[in-house]
Design a protein that fits this description.
Rossmann fold; three-stranded mixed beta sheet; 11 helices; binds nicotinamide-adenine-dinucleotide; alpha/beta; single chain; 14 strands; binds uridine-5'-diphosphate-4-deoxy-4-fluoro-alpha-D-galactose; about 40% helix; globular; seven-stranded parallel beta sheet; about 350 residues
Length: about 350
């Protein structure tokens, strides 16, 4: 089976390619490299011991997509391609609506023209906004606070409408919580450009000495130690969720909306402690003001994923930190060194 992986050179996509290939799928990576390096796929090839078809193209470009669908009989698409920086989405909303929403429209149109109607989409826990309670179940009310989040929510709605118009589509919407960690080889991982927005890469860069200290963004939340609580999930567990979704996609008779999280909530300070233990390095920090738009607590109820995909996260917070550290300490400058 040929699987088109849009955004397959990025953080989650590259890890998912490994498990797809190990599960026997033929993978075609399609990426415009706006936030990725070709080196990630070279390293995936080393891990799996196989060449990967890599196509440089943009999901908004019909010719780029037609040429892929004309060259290969694609059975399903895993659609990771998208922009994901919340702050940038506030500053440049049209860029996000164009890339994420328009890009998905073009992708679905071309898929239908080539008779491919199976898609697994990367959604986000951001669509729950500030949840009234935790753990979060899939039927909780949806709301968003920024253009990035709105792009995810609109795409979910668009894909639901698409299914209503033609129920031969097979659609799985996976709502990720907070992906962290890296492949256990330490050769691929998250490679943020510039100053990281997310906690884990910031902690890792502080531990390796690239940054002086971590700003803990608020210690007056209603949580066990006052700092923000999230559901950190190992990227290889997340990747496994995609393989399970794909394995079952033909058996679904409705649009499936599924949380991918562990069900555990850890605070910023819990993460600092766990990272120090796993790396043997100190992570200096200082308390700073809250970040606009942040919420106190966000963690999943992952029971539906267990029920319908037979999937659950298995890797501990210690493994998440150890693997992040292996990647960060072996590749202090990300993929740049070997370019
Ligand atoms: P990433 O930036 O590492 O990967 C996205 C990939 O898509 C990159 O390789 C980028 O070059 C590519 N891309 C972007 N626009 C494209 C376009 N128009 N055409 C072709 N390729 C394009 O991000 P990631 O962390 O791997 O996230 C993957 C998906 O999961 C994204 O859709 C993201 O919004 C979603 N998601 C991520 C998180 C997270 O915290 N990492 C959480 C929830 C959801
Ligand atoms: N934090 C710090 N210092 C930092 C960065 C973050 O204390 O330098 C704190 C935040 O305040 C929050 C926690 O660490 O309490 C996690 O923050 P992240 O930015 O890593 O993650 P968020 O949960 O805020 O957001 C992430 C993605 C969003 C996505 C959301 C839900 O960045 O795109 O998860 O999936 F929408």
């Amino acid at each position: 089976m040929h699987i088109l992986v849009t955004g397959g050179a990025g953080y989650i996509g590259s890890h998912t390619c490994i498990l797809l290939i190990e599960a026997g799928y033929d993978v075609i990576v399609f990426d415009n490299f706006s936030n990725a390096s070709k080196e990630s796929i070279k390293r995936v090839e080393k891990i799996v011991g196989k060449e990967i078809i890599l196509i440089e193209g943009d999901i908004r470009n019909r010719n780029d997509l037609h040429s892929v669908f004309n060259s290969y009989k694609i059975d399903a698409v895993i659609h990771f391609a998208g922009l994901k920086a919340v702050g940038e989405s506030v500053a440049e909303p049209l860029k996000y609506y164009d890339n994420n929403i328009y890009g998905t429209i073009v992708l679905c149109e071309i898929m239908a023209e080539h008779n491919c109607r199976s898609i697994v989409f990367s959604s986000s826990a951001t669509v729950y906004g500030d949840p009234h309670t935790t753990p979060i179940k899939e039927h909780f009310p949806l709301s968003t606070t920024n253009p990035y989040g709105r792009s995810k929510l609109f795409i979910e709605e668009m894909l639901r409408d698409l299914y209503i118009s033609d129920n031969t589509w097979k659609i799985v919407l996976l709502r990720y919580f907070n992906p962290v960690g890296a492949h256990a080889s330490g050769t691929i991982g998250e490679d943020p450009h510039g100053i990281p927005n997310n906690l884990m890469p910031f902690i890792a860069q502080t531990a390796v000495g690239k940054r002086e200290y971590l700003n803990v963004l608020g210690n007056d939340y209603n949580t066990h130690d006052g700092t923000g609580v999230r559901d950190y999930i190992h990227v290889m567990d997340l990747a496994d969720g995609h393989v399970k979704a794909l394995n079952k996609i033909n058996s679904f008779n409705e649009v499936m909306t599924i949380n991918l999280g562990t069900g555990n909530g850890y605070s910023v300070l819990d993460m600092v402690k766990a990272f120090e233990k796993a790396s043997g390095k100190k992570v200096p920090y200082q308390i700073a003001p809250r970040r606009a738009g942040d919420i106190a607590k966000c963690f999943a109820d992952p029971t539906y994923a267990k029920e319908v995909l037979d999937w659950e996260a298995t890797r501990s917070i210690n493994e998440m930190c150890e693997d992040s550290w292996k990647w960060q300490s072996n590749n202090p400058n990300g993929y740049k060194e070997e370019k």
